[in-house]
Fold this sequence. Notes:
The complex is a heterotrimer.
Chain A: H1 2-17, H2 19-46, H3 55-72, H4 76-86, H5 89-94, H6 99-129, H7 138-166, H8 173-186, H9 198-206, H10 214-221, H11 227-261
Helix pairs in contact in A: 1-6, 2-3, 2-6, 3-6, 3-10, 4-7, 6-7, 7-10, 7-11
Chain B: E1 2-14, H1 19-28, E2 32-45, E3 50-54, H2 61-69, E4 76-81, H3 90-96, E5 97-101, H4 113-123, H5 128-142, H6 157-169, E6 175-179, H7 187-204, E7 207-211, H8 215-221, E8 224-229, E9 232-238, H9 239-245, E10 249-256, E11 268-274, E12 277-283, H10 289-299, E13 302-308, H11 312-321, H12 325-328
Helix pairs in contact in B: 5-6
Chain C: H1 3-19, H2 23-49, H3 58-78, H4 85-91, H5 93-98, H6 104-109, H7 116-134, H8 141-166, H9 169-172, H10 176-191, H11 199-208, H12 216-222, H13 239-264
Helix pairs in contact in C: 2-7, 3-7, 3-8, 8-10, 8-13
Amino acid sequence: MKLFWSFTRQAFHNTAVYRVEFWIRLVSILLAMYSIRAVWQTLYTQRPDAFGLTLGQMVTYGVLGMALHAFIDTGSEWYIATQVRTGAIDTDLLKPIDFHVHMLARNLGEMLFGMGVMALPTYAIGYFVFGLQLPPDAGAAGLFALSVLLGFLVQFHLGFLLGSVAFATLDIRSIAWAYFAVISFFSGQMVPLWMFPDGLRAVAEVLPLQAVYYIPMSIYIGTYSGPEAWSALGFQALWALTLAGVARLAWHQVHRRLTVQGG
Amino acid sequence: MIHVEHLTKDYRRVKRREGLFGSLRTLFSAEYEPLRAVNDLSFDIAEGELVGYIGPNGAGKSTSIKMLCGILVPSSGRIEVNGLVPHKNRMANALQIGAVFGQKTQLWWDVPVIESLRLFRDIYKVPEPVYRQNLEMFNDLLGLHEFRDAPVRQLSLGQRMRADMAAALIHNPHLLFLDEPMIGVDVVVKERLRTFIQQVNRERKVTVILTTHDMVDIEKVCSRIMIIDHGQIVYDGDLDRIRERYGTTRTLVIEFEESVPDFDAPHARLAKSEGRRKWFAFNRLETSPSALIAHISARYPVADLAVEEPDIEEIVRTVYRGGDPQEAAR
Amino acid sequence: MNPISLYLRLVRIAIKARMQYRADFVTGILGVIVMNVVNISLIGILVSRFADLNGWTIWEVVFLYSLWILGHSLFSLFMWHIRTLEDYLVQGTFDQFLLRPASAFVLFIGREVQYLGIADFAIGASGMALAYSNLRLTWGPVEWGFLVLAILAGTLIEMTLTLMISSIAFWTGRSRRANGLVMQVNVMVQYYPVDIFGAFFRVLVTSVIPVAFMNYYPALMLLGKVEHIGAWWPLAYASPVVALVMVGLAAGVWQLALRQYSSAGG
Lengths: 263, 330, 266
């Protein structure tokens, strides 16, 4: 626990020192919101009844997607890859903490910090400027928060898994791009999954990726409510645990290889 | 050759505010505090001198060297290298200097050493016969031919250093900066590099400024030593004096098998005694560790031992205090 | 050694160096291709549900995308590492450029090449070919000539922009986020025709971060849609001029940056 708070505090300090970066990050989120709203507005003026959702709901979906993306994506895969490449992974391995937990605490801390400092201004601006709507009721809001947390866990472990598996290649960059492009595609971050043509939709419904964005955002705008929402949360939790297990296993293999080979 | 007069360099650093709210405030407005890295430095170095430039980390060494290279602009004061003001004539100055950095190579990592050398030959416009002659010399003295076709990333540290040395001298500079060039290098290569430096200095009158933490480098290679601390020169002079007074004290640490009373050994002085351990300070010109150990172990059984060198920080501190070399052993 | 021949020598060495890592070549190329295909599919899905995006049909959107990528690919091949300037500063490698009797700028930009630009080029070329045939375009020498100019202008615009933003690192030590921000704006322009955005954004990507000149404005000319911008029609032909202006600006910023570096240190 103490470890976790120290990471949050550290993330805070790091940003305070590079204060320009903070402002840039904020502007970046606002730009993203702006762009998605423009897209949906354009599309809706042409076919206002194409989707079964109001423009307000669609914009909310899009804007929320952009905002969430800024916090949830902590780039967990980069840390491992860089550490292994530079050899600094040894210091991490020497620490008397479980590496998986260590990384989780670190990334969770960063995410919470991001939320803590920026959630309020971005939400306020989203609401007042970009047409972000409030959730239908307090219950949905609560479920949403829980869902975001679970979605983060899924995202984190996907990244952790990638970092563990791909460390062997020297250049993880393009693999990461492809990996996250596919994730982003099937996670419903930009386009809600029911808009996909049938074949792709079938694939998307099976994959755990929807847990990262589609589920929390659907809960937020009310597409999932009541028992549906709970079962969606269950889906998320199941996948979060499964991925955690798989990632941990993959890391274990890496760890063994590293200590045997000597990095 | 090098003329430095009242050289000063100030930096601005963001003041770090305490606590969480302090950090928040820094987000909106930052306060700066001045940091004086180099403080009124003045010295002259003649052509062909071999100068050891030492001081603790953060003393202002790299700042002053960067100014000599023309990378950094002084806050005030005069600086001239062979009549040129480095920061005003960066490229012209670059032609007459060479540098080797212990931590970082200047060669391209993934291509053969010789490729980097060829490129430098062309950048510095070294005439072909001079280039070939230098390569010959590097082959002889540094064994360059053994690894010239290997990419730098495949070289051992010692080989890399030798390659960097070659690269620094390929264009016959008048002035050579060596920034901790021997770190991590094994003794054999160290000796080779030292000899090389001396030869180049002697035959080509290359002025050398050597930064190092190893007193042996200084002792074997340099004729003059400059000590810098907190941005100021605290000692500038002959090596012999330093050698006599400060550089020769060693400490032999003995752990006895059981607690023994204090005693003195010939040519050594008991500096400290703690439990079963005793620290004996001695002048290595007067006696050797083995002689001491022989004498001591004859008196009492020895469980473990170690020889401590006085580190640069100690010497600098001593010099700064203007103190007794015997005191330095404590 | 004059700057051009120095640059060519450096690039030769950089290519040799990059060839040492051939193992990653295939995965890298595949990765980029997958990423681009996925991204354009996303737009494809959206646009297919509606006939078009503010008057831009799916193949016109592909054209827009491809034109951007072609300019980007050359940047990606030769200049991508400009973004990592902050690393050069932090690790002290930049100092070495200042130790040589040559332009630090040339030494820096000639330092690396990235093979991923090849994948970008392949995607851009294929996309452009597909769009050309599906849109049944018929270009004369003027259009082909302008295409080449537009691509080169695009490369220069992205390069100068990246250089100026990365130079922030000389003052603040970091430029990663700023680069990310500009990249974000750049990506918005890559996928979406600028006219779907409001006036503020359009002004932003036309005059402040002129990435709209990488694809949107030249596309108007090449696709015969210049009337979209009415009285502003000269902009459709202006990308080479904009590129030159950016070069001038970037040169100025670089000089300031070097001066900053030599006074404030590493």
